[in-house]
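Why does residue order matter? Because the sequence determines the fold. Keep that principle in mind as you read this record.
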Amino acid sequence: MSGLEFTKEAAKQLEKTYLTRDVVAQRVETIRQLNLSRGESVLDIGCGPGYLCESMGEIVGRHGAVVGIDVSTDLIALCNQRKASAWLSYAVGDATKVNQADASFDVVVCTQVAE
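Structure:
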């Protein structure tokens, strides 16, 4: 896997896009639909800049876990710079080759990856 590479400027621009009103509204609706609970383990495939992971992490709390994977090393670097809590983790990964044990998550989410 070579990963999707962004210039730092392009990664920062994508990060800004994920803060626009329509993308924030989509994130809020995704959270509502997931109906997460404290203590759950969540995998976000194609986590991008990590904002959905951060929101899910606030809900699952310290007894839960959120793992975000993305093919872009640049986006994972942005995620790790902003990492808000110890129960969030990020890794470079390929959605077609998830390196996690079967049934190790309560919830798996994948949004905006195919767009």
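The mean pLDDT is 87.
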